[in-house]
Amino acid sequence: MNELLLYGSVGQSFWDEEHFTPAQVRADLKTFTGPVTIRINSGGGIATDGQAIYTALKDYPDAIHVVIDGIAASAASLIAMAGDTITMPIGSIMMIHDPANWFVEGRGTEADHLRSAANLRTLSNAYAKIYAARADIPVEEAREIMRAETYLDGAEALAAGFATSSDDEIEATAFAAFDYGIYDHAPQGLMAVAGARPRAAPRAKVLAMLAGTPPTTTTKPKGKPMAKTAAKTAPKAPAKTTASTKEDQIEAEEDDLMVEDDPEAVDQEDDPTTDTTADAEIDEPDAEEDEVEDDEVEDEPAVARAAAVGVLAYCERNNLPMASARSYISRGLTVAQINAERGGKDKKVRINPHGPSARITRDEVETRRTGIEGAIVARLSRDRMVNGPARDYMALSLPEMAAMSAGQRGRVQRGAGELRAIEMAFGSHSVSDFPAIFENALNKRLSQAYQSAQPTYRAIAERIDMSDFRPTPIAAIGDWPTLMPIGEGGEIKSGTVGDKSEIVALAAYGRKFHISRQMMVNDDLGAIDRLLSTRGRAVAAFEDQLFYAMLLAGAGSDGPTLRETGRQVFNASDKTKAASAAAITPAAVAKGFEAMMQRKGVGKDDPFLAITPSILLVGPQQLFAAQQLVAPIQAAQADNVNPYVSALQVVASPYITGNGWYLLADPGSAPVFMYGYLQGEEGPRMRMDEPFGQQGLGYSVELDFASGATDYRGGYKNAGG
């Protein structure tokens, strides 16, 4: 199971607590395939980093399941909104509020404050749109919830639309370590956790960091406060310095004094009545109560309080009396020691005042398999941007990877040692997982080459995958009975679906090829990649050939015979074939439009389907004429305007010979043809046929593919003139 734990603060550490960053989350997501469970226990953090992590989760190609283990506050609640499902165990909390900022960049002028307000408005509106989309409420209603600093338990979040389920069978873990005192309406339970955190930075500066705006700080002058004297004789004011990193900004003192040139001093110099020797002192501001004088001095009482909070939460979870909690605290036991003393009875709880940072719960063997497989795929595709476990294996050769998979440690000897490593990995009695790893990597690279090909049949046919190899009925678009009036008695008349659905079946195809032992021992992944690339493109070309052989089957290349009509797809009786051949001209194409728009369903009283063509299918001989038809022109008169400029897409295939041309509807609305694969097996796949021998590795490339005609109503053919 893929699982990612987002515990601690979002973006960075504020009080030496654990944290996670957007870069960590993006790197970890790249190592996953399939659904991922995201477990959150975070008091919040940097707002913009919360947005970045939310976006990374939304961009993940598979399902995201969010579980709020303890708390998802502030930016962490936004991250939770990325889940396809959001589950809140009993006792968990979600907090939604407005981003805040006590600092502005610059000198604090009106323009600086207005700019800061505009930035906060943009950030708040971006958050509100995400909350509103999740809860299906207006954006302004989401803004009101944010302004109120709203705390929700599982049932309340579910009712409000911010969660999809509330799990009463699982209890929440202890809330993540965080200074919840920076929030205006934090409940007492959270304030207890806040009291256990050593405050290493003033509240105002932390709030500035949470809003994503670095505060400007200055250096406090040393010694006696400076007297106000004439400008020419006064010492220069200390230079204003800006913290270069977020850590500097947090550690800066809140009562920094910024001394600027005083315009009154200049006036005093020119005024003879002014006593320039006056010694009017400036009082130094008092330091904030929460200022830390020495960051390197550990706050032992605060650490003790943090441990006590963990013990209290553990005892509450396990229904232990307060006397037991006091006893454990007085003995100085940690949560882990208490749990061990009780025989490890609490299997679920993970109480840690410093909560773990983002990490993956993954078996070491699975990590190695994923890393080696990813490295082989990256080297085959010549990918230089490699992240996750694969990065650690990029420098290894194939024999070295094979030896590592077989449990061998140490360097592989060149020559005979490399051959031996390959033979051991692929031998008939081998227990190594390298053959499976290598086969998976080859399949991924084969799939990449196959997907890069663009056979034209995919543009003109509907894709329908099948669950097995039995003949599958495909209903036509005209099979659904038309609606009938409902009488005063409320009776709804029955209708029947046509029983002449077209039948299509999958067929299996395959071909063997070999990878020589020289390629393996020589680590010649370039040669192996050329084999895979040519076969991937060849499979796509083979599908194209099969499809057009079906489309052009039968007498006059008019297509296969349909069960519904007993006639070929293109014929004069159904008006799917022009009565007289004509070149590609506006008038000839207009007749095709007219014929297709007059198509009806199966019943004689069915309404018109009003089908309009969107594809002009031609061969090489008519490609230029087709492109001329849809080319934009500057018409001097209305009668000369080209109506087909944006109405038709030209698709050309070398399998269409002669002057014939076709009009086809969009396959998503009125398909004439279909193609498909065995469900879960799109495109070609590789399978190892034999163990390693003198002839190398034997592989089969296999494909399960189907194509056929399903209806005539979305098509029209002209033999061409």
UniProtKB/TrEMBL annotation:
Residues 212-301 are annotated as: Disordered. Residues 250-301 have a biased composition (Acidic residues). Residues 212-244 have a biased composition (Low complexity). Pfam families: CLP_protease, Phage_capsid_4. GO terms for biological process: protein quality control for misfolded or incompletely synthesized proteins. Belongs to the peptidase S14 family. NCBIfam families: Clp_rel_HeadMat (NF045542). This is ATP-dependent Clp protease proteolytic subunit. It comes from Roseicitreum antarcticum.
